[in-house]
Amino acid sequence: MTKLIVILLSAVFINNYVLSRFLGICPFLGVSKKLDSATGMSLAVIFVMLIATAVTWPIQYFLLDPNNLGYLQTIVFILVIAALVQLVEIVLKRYIPSLHKSLGVYLPLITTNCAVLGVTILNIDEGYSFLEAMVNSLGSGLGFFLAMVMFSGVRSKLEGADIPESFKGLPITLVAASITSLSFLGFGGVIENMFPA
Amino acid sequence: MNEILIAVIPVVIIGIICAAMLVIASKLMAVKEDERFPAVRDCLPGANCGACGFAGCDGYAKALCESSETPANLCIPGGDSVAKQLSEVLGVEFEDVEEQVAVVHCSGDCEHTQDKYEYHGIESCAAAKLMFGGKGSCSYGCLGFGDCAAVCPQNAISVVNGVAEVCSADCIGCGLCTRTCPNRLISLVPYRKAAVVKCSNRDKGAVTRKACSAGCIGCKKCEKVCPNGAIKVSDNVAAIDYGKCKDCPDFAACAENCTTKCISTMNAPM
């Protein structure tokens, strides 16, 4: 149980996908302008990370590994995740239109998102069990959510700030992003000391 | 060769399985889209400006298909031609698009107002506004430096005798000037409607009178004479409800009876 908590917390704070591992930067910069779109995107990412892990973990251990095809991991995962997200979108559109309305526009954006692919591959690399892998995905998703919501707050402040002409737009966004990610350095070592082995 | 096949075949198989799944799913779970939707969507200009009140052209097209209550004449950039196409596709009666035109709610030209001081600053309304609300005696009125004329894409605005004027024949109703004027003097009104209050002074009548001899003093005469009850005086200035204002082309009672002649009729060539 402790291990699961450690995995969850370190995925959210220490190995935050956006701010520490620098995966999924494109949605982080692209969709963080407004709070509601940032929330929608992050919820979609959490959702996709979970189902992607639920599908790719068995594929790795029951299909690729027994046949010595481990080197096909990346390409097979991309293929499966993309198809899966499209499938989920179709299902949502049919049965839960309200959810499709709020997540719908973001789902196609994350079919080939590097954070999603990163989670599934890192789950395998770390040698997690299925349950641990799911918890790690949930934590990664929550970490993405946290980073997106925080950063959309920072950006809404930037909107009203008096920024030098040459810094306007993407440059100041990147500067703000790097400062935000610096703040996450403060979590380093916290979890290890909270749950000493 | 064998090694390559061992790698290629599983990927191809997985790909085919995924593709088959998607094909089956999209066939089984197809959501019925209104067959008129593509046709309706093609009629709209696709500028996604939101002037219709819906979220972009797709939103408007969807609303048009879903409910016959949605009026087909909401697309302002498209104008009559789009409304005509839409009404053909949807099989509803064609209604005119209410084209809008900008009007300046101020008539305080050099004859009617005095200067408080001499202004030698930057030649822009926004800058002049910062100096005690402008040099004119009325702090609500037109500043006369033509910030609106500068943003007008059609060059439809000119400053005549210290007050901006919109040439309604050239105005396309884009609304850029309404957002530029530091005193918010310009607004969009329906093109066909006749009467315009040419004053925005919200001071009491006596104060207004002192500042500008053409200002609205809030006497409420227009309120009483309007046959449609479209005029209301609030904050000491008359305001016209264009939902109620009917065309009074021959005799506009409000304009004729206005004490200070600050209501005028727009001679809209129909």
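qc> Chain B has a mean pLDDT of 82.
qc> done
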